[in-house]
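S.,

Sequence below, as promised.
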Amino acid sequence: VEVCFPVLDEKLRRRVISEGLESYLEDNTQAWEMDSGGTYRLPKPSRARKVCAQTALIARLASAGNEDEKSAGARPPKLKRKQAK
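The prediction came back faster than expected:
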């Protein structure tokens, strides 16, 4: 399901474009292109630097989360390991 709605706040609009739209338009590893007949095809590989929108978004969100933790002085929670029986 795809939904469309206006983003009225200018700051949010810039964020949607930079974090979402631009990344997906640059994706050359998982993107498909639709030809004039309506058939989807994988684009021909190129020698350009590989760009994956999902990987870029995860990396951006992870680094933003790390910055939030640093600025708040928070530490990541310690994980408890299960004891082998």
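The mean pLDDT is 82.

Coffee later?
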